[in-house]
Amino acid sequence: MTLDQYEQHRRLWEIGLWTAFFVVNWLAGTWVEWLEFQREGNTTPLWQPLLWEGSSNLTQLLLLPLILLWDRRFPLEPGQLRRNAVAHAGFSVVFSLLHVVSMVAIRKAVYVLKGTSYDFGHWPSELLYEYLKDFRSYAYFLGVLYLYRFILRRLRGEAGFLSEENERDAPRPVTDRFLVKKLGREFLVKVDDIEWIEAAGNYVNLNVGSRAYPLRETMTNISSRLADAGFLRVHRSAIVNLDQVAQIVPFDTGDGEAHLQNGTRVPVSRRYRKALRERLQASSDGRS
């Protein structure tokens, strides 16, 4: 499989890989616990460790998007590492509480269906015990997430403004090219070829067709620098190339979507929708 093929279905691959990870963890945990029962002569039926491990892994999988959203708000990047690490440590408590309450609810429901009852134990001590495990799991999830992002950036190649390479001490004007460094190679990407830009922590992704090139820049700065090149910010996490916008679909909430010519749907917040309409109208009038 090529990188381009992976990128076309990246979200599905990510969902599939995380799901497979939790399924393997569920089965492995059940097997280890079952072997311990066998060694001790415990006659606990197999469905119970399957339920215990399954309820835990299922709720962690369902809570994983919350970790991703929290990390988007508080990325562990240089310059804000200490503050955001504290934010993650605090959120790990919320994560653990949601995990414990959800898995206990699932276990109690299944036990009721089986005609028996489930006893979680002494809640204060059990919550502390579960938090110590959940904190380790939370840190592990973040480690895997950042390793994955690092590998993906290396494969994609990191972009930089072409002027930065040659005019380090001069103001950084917008050129019509980005210099992309990818696995020891360098090539150029035209600004006009960029369809839209998406926020990704301390990076933004320059989306060109099925490819995305990470650029270490903030959304505010890149939006300002590319404003005269036909780009407009339409969401706190999205900027579009106006020439690539096929239509705007409004929602009853006041928000909307920008449908690009390649079929991509980019969120448009109510804050930016009016400006997008005006810019598109101005571009249309200018071409008439």
Write the layout of secondary structure elements.
Blueprint: H1 3-8, H2 10-40, H3 47-73, H4 81-113, H5 123-156, E1 158-161, H6 162-166, E2 177-182, E3 185-190, E4 196-200, E5 203-208, E6 211-215, H7 219-226, E7 231-235, E8 238-241, E9 245-250, E10 256-260, E11 265-268, H8 270-287
Antiparallel strand pairs: 1-2, 2-3, 4-5, 4-8, 5-6, 7-8, 9-10, 10-11
Written overview of the protein:
This protein has helices at 3-8, 10-40, 47-73, 81-113, 123-156, 162-166, 219-226, 270-287; strands at 158-161, 177-182, 185-190, 196-200, 203-208, 211-215, 231-235, 238-241, 245-250, 256-260, 265-268. It is α+β, with helices and mostly antiparallel strands. The strands form three sheets. Strands 6-5-4-8-7 form a five-stranded antiparallel beta sheet. A three-stranded antiparallel beta sheet has the order 1-2-3. A hairpin with a 4-residue loop joins β10 (256-260) and β11.
Strands, total number: 11
Task: Please state the average pLDDT score.
Answer: 88
Helix run count: 8
Main sheet characteristics: 5 strands, antiparallel
Order of helices and strands: HHHHHEHEEEEEHEEEEEH
Which structural class fits the helix and strand makeup?
alpha+beta
Give the CA-based shape: elongated
What's the end-to-end separation, in Å?
45 Å
Helix content estimate: 55-70%
**Low-pLDDT segments:** 164-171
Residues in β-strands, percent: 15-25%
